[in-house]
Amino acid sequence: KVRLEIDGRPVEIEAGKTVLDAAREVGITIPSLCYLREINEIGACRVCLVEIEGQRSLQAACVYPVAEGLKVYTNTPRVRKARKRVVELILSDHSRECTSCIRNLNCELQNIADNLGIRRIEVQGEAHQIPVQENNPSIRHDPNKCIHCRRCENICAKVQENCVIAAQNRGFDTIIAPAFSRDMGDVDCIMCGQCVLSCPVGALTEKECIDDVWKALADPEVHVVVQTAPSIQVTLGEAFGLPVGTKVTGKMVAALRRLGFNQVLATDFAADLTIVEEAYEFLHRFQAGQLPFFTSCCPAWIKLVEHHYPQFIPNLSTCKSPMSMFGALTRYTYHQERNLPKEKVVSVAVMPCTAKKYEAARLEHGYDGRPDVDYVLTTRELVRMIREAGIEFSELPDEPFDSAFREVTGAGTIFGATGGVMEATLRTTSWVLLGNGTGQNDKVQPAPIEFREVRGEKGLKLLHVNLGEYDIRVAVAHGTGNARRVLEAIQAGERIDFVEVMACPGGCVGGGGQPILGGRDHKKVSLDYRHDRADALYDIDSHKNLRYSHENPVVQLLYREILGHPGSELAHRLLHTEGYQ
Ligand code: HC1
Ligand code: SF4
């Protein structure tokens, strides 16, 4: 530990930390823009300048190491003047369309400019006019808003290990873009949206489809069905001022009804269906020795495999994601039962994910010549719609999902956290292999419900799961950097049977379409918020009566009355990518 003084206040902190860390320990906020803990600590933006006794020039607090006896001043006239000038310089070449910017009131630059009391920009210089890139199916890139903080570059390079975007050119001509300034639609971007989450301003955003959804909702001839991913119910509330991890399932449903959706469904139901299909497929491949077997619900993970590890494409489950399964299923049942013409049903999904926009547009995520899902809204887009409609979210009553597929089990809900798909699959797999202790399966050992070892923040977990006579080697990875480690281990000859990958750190709770917690509260710009969101999902699961996907009575009914059995011909046509027409 070292002892230092910040603005006359004593601080004790471990050696190796920075002045910025030390200031935060004692509740002093030093503004910062480019800093992202453990990911981007490069002192590039100079917004965090402080005065240090004995030093002639001001220093960037985010990279200045603490030392015994250091005396730091964070609020002197010289510091304030320098910070103002730095921010003015950034603003002088920033497209200042704040009122019409997607990040209006949730922009770190806007927030800092406000806190520093910048009322006029005295620096008059050249400003960029660069075309906005919109060819990536999920991500919009407006370089005129970019402040070159390099957060996106480093999250893509260090966490996702994709290295899609980086600084091109030099000096004033610097632009953050793919190599040779190619279009983001022409490169191997997996559309995870982690760069969007890390962007402090509005340079990287999702491609919105709000207008299309409003249009469908306004058409009285059209039946608009919406499904919400498992994680939305534990993140949506944050955008309306509720603490991270607040469960708002009922209010979310009520808000969607008030927006005019004709039917509101939980993707969690389709997650149960996915598990039954996937567990069946896994067992089949396990017995046939066709391993390893990879989960397939994360579209950014699929894209990573396709671009960089195509030799593993046959290892991916052929199951569609729950989102697409539900889209296909609702289209099919509407057509069969309500006789609604296909074009009169519009299928919308609210997802925590930017890559789902791309997934929905993929040919094999369609049925009978129509996409399974027409429009994918991110959590943030849903927030904007709720605000636009003037709905007071916090005052909404709790309402239940529509009855058709209302039944969901805890297994379907935990999909939204890293390890959730693995745990849900293991629940059903173990039930099949071990029986449930009631003798139904001629087996004696009761099947476990919880597999806590696959949960949690560790980026890569390699584990043995013993199910009676079976030893299943599983890997759970989140963040594509960790996914690469799994694939490299397999390539190096390690035996791994079953792999779950979620491209976003934390799984869908940390998805690229989730609320961005930057803006007003710097303390929240850390990795911790993902745990709180995941805990909320596990809490929902622990309170459910039904926690095995195969016990979902509506899933059972579906197999009895429509699909036949898991892996049936119709199941393949509707629910698997290889069955598309
Ligand atoms: Fe996910 Fe999934 S859990 S991919 O992580 O399999 O996006 O939340 O909806 O489809 O169910 C996302 C979340 C989501 C799908 C499910
Ligand atoms: Fe990199 Fe993901 Fe952003 Fe694409 S979407 S540039 S892969 S972080």
Task: List the main descriptive attributes of the protein structure presented here.
33% helix; 4-stranded parallel β-sheet; single chain; binds 2 iron/2 sulfur/5 carbonyl/2 water inorganic cluster; binds iron/sulfur cluster; 14% strand; alpha/beta; 18 helices; 581 residues; globular
Written overview of the protein:
It is a single chain. The chain is α/β, with parallel strands linked by helices and 581 residues long. Helices cover 33% and strands 14% of the residues. It contains 18 helices and 19 strands. The radius of gyration is 25 Å and the shape is globular. About 1% of the residues have low confidence. Bound molecules: 2 iron/2 sulfur/5 carbonyl/2 water inorganic cluster and iron/sulfur cluster (SF4). The site of 2 iron/2 sulfur/5 carbonyl/2 water inorganic cluster has 20 residues, from helix 8 and helix 10.
Brief sketch in words of this structure:
With 581 residues, the chain is an alpha/beta fold. Helices cover 33% and strands 14% of the residues. The chain is built from 18 helices and 19 strands.
Helix content: 25-40%
Outline, from the CA principal axes?
globular
Strand content: 5-15%
| Strand neighbour order, sheet with most strands | 2-1-5-3-4
Ligands (ions, cofactors included): 2 iron/2 sulfur/5 carbonyl/2 water inorganic cluster, iron/sulfur cluster
Figure out the total of helices: 18
* Uncertain regions spanning at least 5 consecutive residues: 519-525
- Kindly provide the radius of gyration, computed on alpha-carbon positions and rounded to a whole number of angstroms: 25 Å
